[in-house]
## 1
Amino acid sequence: MANIRLKNIYKSFDGLEVLHNLDLKVVDGEFVVLVGPSGCGKSTTLRLIAGLEEVTSGEIQINDRAVNDLEPRYRNIAMVFQNYALYPHKNVRENIVFGLQRAGASRELIAERLGKASKILGLEELLDRRPSQLSGGQRQRVAMGRAIVRDADVFLFDEPLSNLDAKLRYQMRSEIIRIHREYRTTSIYVTHDQTEAMTLGERVVVMRDGIIEQQGNPMEIYLKPANIFVATFIGSPSMNILDARLFPGWVEVGEQRLPLKRKVDQGHILIPEHGRDIKFGIRPDFFLDARFSKSRVDLARIENVRIDLVESLGFDREFSIHAGGQAMKARLDLRTMAGEGETIDLCVDMDMTHFFDPDTGRNLFV
Ligand SMILES: Nc1ncnc2c1ncn2[C@@H]1O[C@H](COP(=O)(O)OP(=O)(O)OP(=O)(O)O)[C@@H](O)[C@H]1O
Ligand SMILES: [Mg+2]
């Protein structure tokens, strides 16, 4: 078991800085997901922890001890990659126990660890097969097995599921959660898939361009995004960001005035009587069809919303709409019968909306 600490980490490649003063704590037994767009520095962060890259400056600690100068093999970290890196000529059993054998583990210990891991991973029937005789999901499980039997202090996962189809990815996600509950090994999991981050992470760390934009549990990140980047990166379809003006008591979007319940004017930002330009954020999921929300007097109303496109998602439908010249998306259930070219009235709970600074993107009320 282990806790991990990254302290003021900078990393440059050929003079180009890709991680800027990264600070991260992972406590013993935690499952932390690093998520962010391609190139933001997720894999680099993992490779620094594993010791496969050297930091340019800063300290990496495992169990409160600096490990900057410790070789990878002494860090007791197991890494699972996107390409499983299995030995093609070894069977499943041999692939799983190879590391243990090389470390000189006893036959009894190897048998015990292999037995437990193959049971948990559902590999018992497949131990004699070669990797080429396995499906993608099964190969991924072998790669997990290899990490598990080593009894490492830390698991590092670098997009381990991105080669799998949607259904298998979903299944493997549940398995990874189950395995973590069983072993409670401190884990850092990298993905650029925000759905994966939200379902797997006990804590989600959102990165962009080599910095941490926000960290918290998935609900905090979803409901209280620190800025426009996090707000639009997490959640699908993306949060609508509209040009608006904030007044003490209401927000003006186009020609519509949406009353505010909360006392924003008592907050810590200045809202002049003549209004302040802001970016107004509403998640597509938080719109309601006004026809089915009549009893909800607490909701704000957006009228004469024009429907440009309707896409069916099964129970829900995704509406591309516009109001006051601004395009947005709304997700409504099957009861909403209105179709393309028609107009509807929508309701929104203003407590679920966000106000962002148009210059910095910062959420004004988080
Ligand atoms: N060995 C290297 N030499 C030079 N530049 C590198 C090297 N490794 C990574 N980089 C650069 O560092 C930045 C971060 O790369 P990294 O692989 O950590 O991104 P990532 O977040 O894992 O992206 P992805 O989601 O595409 O895997 C990128 O701009 C990348 O080009
Ligand atoms: Mg990567």
## 2
Amino acid sequence: MLIRMERARSSQALRDTSPMDRCAHYTKEPFNHWLVQFIQAPMPQQVVDLGVGGGSLLSAAAERWRHADLIGIDVCATALARLQARLPLAAVRRADLMRGRVLKVLDEWSGSADVVLCNPPFTQTPPEHVQSAELQALLPDGLPASYLKRAEVVFLLHTLRLLRPGGEMGLVLPASFASGNQYLAFRQWLFTRCTVSRVVQLPAGAFAGADVHAFLWIAKNCKPSSHAQVELAFAERDRLMWTRKVHRAHAILRCDASFHGQSPRKVAHVTLAETGARVSRGRSVQELRGKALHYFHTTSFAQLPPNRQLVAGEPEHLGALDLAKTGDFLLGRVGRSCHAQIAEVRSGFTAYSDCVYRIQVPKRWRAAVRASLLSEEGTAWRASRLRGSAARLLALADLLQHPIAIQGKDNDERRSRLVE
Ligand SMILES: C[S@@+](CC[C@H](N)C(=O)[O-])C[C@H]1O[C@@H](n2cnc3c(N)ncnc32)[C@H](O)[C@@H]1O
């Protein structure tokens, strides 16, 4: 009964918001000021905000550059009315940036902006607009056509069209653009097309109205020099914790600071793959529910005793199911805290969901794998490898690179035997 009431309430909430609101995450203090402060231009004349919303970014710009011409563009009339009340001197323009014919509307500012700020909706471009000849013509060489399906990419292409040569942009993009494999071609293109000076990894609660992992990107509209470095920064709550400079070739691989922030390992180690471990995923929750049996899922980790040992039952239903058994490790695969979720099957058998990894480790490596999985360093390493903007995920390719410390005086002997 209670569950039904919860559902009813949340569907009412959705009806009360526009489709735009559902993908909007509004920049709040101090991140709006950060985006503006990180821009190097001392006195831009023209500052444009694409997807200006209530004007959080443009107001921060107005505080820093008092004499600049401010222009706010958005599809939402209510947002623009609010902006006009907040910044009466700003020019506002209502335009749907995901439609090809918007190009004409923006023509008057094309190539003239000194600074463009943009926190786009993290959503899909409507399929009928992706096909429009005007949007297709915006697509530069080096970017797959499928990228136009993302509103973030469409907004970025508008940003580049508005910027004068050498002008600067401050963008907010979801985490997948900084670390996802699907956006490797995007990073290759952007880091060759523009001089990206800084990428800042924001904390999870950085935005009002959405639980997303996002990054601030600062870049100039000019080609980078061959030795260009990028400053990667890591923020926690409302503080910049540390920064690290990397060559842009490394940033193309991934530009989340947490990935590059891991200190070099001081103890000898091998990777999980090198131990001969086999990693598998379980079945979908839907399929397991249909079989009416007990199974291990992400919610099961919280019920483990402090030593993380799982006493599983006997198989209730063998079927074709792959069951975890004594000596296997179970690890969270998805979710914000999945890097901290570990269990070791002490006895018995259990089915497990596809949100969980099962790791079978050869017996001689089990103690070392257990120690590394449970160690603070191991947990921090997994946290640094998480990907994804909303649902966080530990990818299999990353997990197989998990460092497993080898200790004792037989280190070298074991390592060389392993490499043979
Ligand atoms: C993530 S919010 C950012 C708002 C504000 N700039 C901020 O940082 O708080 C994205 C904004 O894009 C606007 N938007 C969504 N789709 C749009 C479209 N097709 N054309 C123009 N603006 C759009 C929304 O109305 C919303 O104000």
